[in-house]
Amino acid sequence: MTDQAPYPIGTPGQAWGDAEKAEWLSRQTRQRSYAADVLSTIERLRSHFDVVEYGRLDYAPDTFPLFAIKSRDWRDDLPWVLVTGGVHGYETSGVHGALQFVEQHAADYAGRLNLLVAPCISPWAYERIHRWNRDAIDPNRSFRDGSPAEEAAALMRLVAPIRDRVLVHIDLHETTDTDESEFRPAKAARDGEESSPGEIPDGFYLVGDSENPQAEFQQAIIAAVARVTHIAPADRNGEIIGSPVVSPGVINYPVRQLGLCAGITAAPYKTTTEVYPDSPRATAEQCNTAQAVAVTAAIHFALANPRSFVPAT
What we know:
Blueprint: H1 18-26, H2 34-45, E1 50-59, E2 62-70, E3 80-85, H3 92-104, E4 114-118, H4 123-128, H5 150-159, E5 166-174, H6 177-191, E6 205-209, H7 215-225, E7 239-240, E8 243-244, E9 250-253, E10 269-275, H8 284-304
Parallel strand pairs: 3-4, 3-5, 5-10, 6-9
Antiparallel strand pairs: 1-2, 2-4, 6-10, 7-8
Helix pairs in contact: 2-3, 3-8, 7-8
């Protein structure tokens, strides 16, 4: 048992029904603007990149167009790099780090690879600074056939034609103090489970794919990001968020089994970044830059160590 106060919605030990989900939804308020923060930047990028609307969320009374940024002169004989951000809307640097990468670095790879960047997969949650979508579903456990989260389903449809041609997929995330104070207790309440306190790591770390961990690739990213912000140490159990640290700043998950965004392609090089924006040792600017640096480091490693991909026929 824990001494944590019960979550304010629902009855301890009982999973939420429609009434509890409706109460949760009624508490969610718009705190920032997807149009002002994200769409305005995407508009500026149209002069240099193709912008594709790959879906639309009809969350009455709001409608959110979903946009991806794509290399203008893409070539069938080149591999793809997929960059995703904002799967969890509250993880701010994932969104703005992806956009910063496009603005500052994407043009450097013209003629060397094709880029596809989906910077804000969950705009409803971005505006409400939340982990879940409007239906109290975590999109980053929903990347599977028949997904209940339209955010995940739309991205999977976008990526399907190039799934086997992706060389690198880097999914940009954050671990925040609210993971512990709000989102883990909320999940436990929603599912009728007990919430156990955990430990939030202070610093940047990566989540690799346990089925294809690519240790050298992960360490190349860690080395690059360490020049921008600090790397999370292992806790007293040699773990980060309950998983064994396999090398400095790296843990592994079975990404496809868990329905994570990082598992949606057959990319030989894939990783999830985790920035810690609540650290007194990191600024918002550092967090955004750490995400952009992680993307460039991943690309540089992959270009220097190419793996097979399936060209278009």
